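Hi support team,

I'm opening this ticket because the web form for multi-chain structure prediction keeps timing out on my end. I have pasted the exact lines I submitted so you can reproduce it. The total is 248 residues across two entries, so I didn't expect it to be a heavy job. Is there a limit I'm missing, or should I split the entries? Thanks in advance, R.K.
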Amino acid sequence: MNWIVFILIPAALIAFVTGQLFLKHAMESSAEKGFRDARVISFLIYGVLSMSVNFFLTLGLLAHLDLSFVYPFQGLSVIIISLAAAIVLRERLNLRLTLGALLISVGIVIVSLS
Amino acid sequence: MRDRRSGVANPWFILGLEVICVLVYELLQKRGASETVSLSQTWSWIGVTALTSPMVWLAMLLMIVSLLSWLYVLRYIPLSIAFPLSRVVDVLIPLSCWLILGENISPRRWLGIALVIIGLMLTAKPVARLEEKL
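Hello R.K., no limit was hit. The queue was backed up. Here is the completed structure from your submission:
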């Protein structure tokens, strides 16, 4: 396995998480400002761009590696997104939600490994 | 959550719709792609042969529906609740592969499925309270 995999996998994960954060932020602001607002539009574009980066990085990874190796890393996105939403978007995160997200992440990793 | 939406416009209902769309399009993609491999071994690797399958086109339609419903969900539900809940597909996909496609599920995979379900239950509990307050 190439060393570049250890750069591309985190990169794909980061692109996915940032994409979701951008889309969430755009949709939330759209509730107040509507869809013609310049900030809403630009956040939507950033979100779609990040998701596209994730899409191509994932395709590239899948071209060289097994799905059973690539997919577990996507399982980690659950806990990372919950923490990022709490930090970046100031969403309220309690112990129960954190534990829930952690169990889902671990569960997905186990499902895709076996 | 901002304004309360009821009936079909209820964000929790749309989240369910998103999950079902993802589940169905994954299964359709799998069926459509593997049925068309015989057309050309070489071209099948980049998904071109799969385009001859109507199931794959239906999958694309469902992908668009799932993306739009996900954006709608994001407008109303916190990401730290909506995203973990949306991963219920990671349980539904192996379960439907088991039920519909007759694939095997190993004991370790059952353990993973159980963990995801417990995690989903923990995440869904505050939702019930969130709804009561509204």
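A quick check on our side: The helical segments of chain A are 5-33, 38-64, 67-75, 77-88, 95-113. Let us know if the file doesn't open in your viewer.
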